Amino acid sequence: MMALFLLLVLVAVILGIIGVAVHGLGYLLAIGIVIFVADLIFFGARLSRRARRRPVR
Predict the structure, then answer these.
(1) Per-residue pLDDT tens for 9-19?
(2) Where are the transmembrane segments (predicted)?
(3) Disulfide check for 28: which of 16, 19, 48, 55 has CB 3.0–4.6 Å away?
């Protein structure tokens, strides 16, 4: 699952760089930001779900 997180972060960064570098493709920057934020939300939800499942001793 960590590989998927890192892959999506990499895709978001690449889209952001292309969106900034190429004139007229600013929408790629917006798509990259949306992917990055969605990835962080997904990763945070998985961490919080995992933290709640600790066995009570």
Answers:
(1) 899 999 988 88
(2) 26-47
(3) 19
Cβ-contact 35, 12 below 8 angstroms: yes
Kindly report the CA angle at 37 between 33 and 43, in degrees rounded to 5?
Answer: 145
In whole angstroms, give the CA distance from residue 11 to residue 54.
33
pLDDT given for residue 55 in this prediction? 65
Q: For position 54, what pLDDT does the model report?
A: 63
Torsion over CA: 8, 9, 14, 19 (sign) = positive
> From the centroid of its chain, how far is CA 53?
24
27 and 34 Cβ atoms separated by less than 8 Å: no
